[in-house]
Description:
single chain
Amino acid sequence: MGTTIATKAxxxxxxxxxxxxxxxxxxxxxxxxxxxxxxxxxxxxxxxxTVRLGSMLVVGFGVMIAALKFLQS
Length: 73
């Protein structure tokens, strides 16, 4: 009979386990939200880098064409 009745210590342990699981669920939710934010930041960074590389290529070709025209005259 004593093994089927929960003691105060058992209830306290159960409360601690439930609180830990709730905390873990909250942390998991925060991690998911942060990973979504990180994904968006990486996507924006990728787009920015692509635009910068394209700009550098355009400027580089412009300088090269200007140099060729300068050297030919």
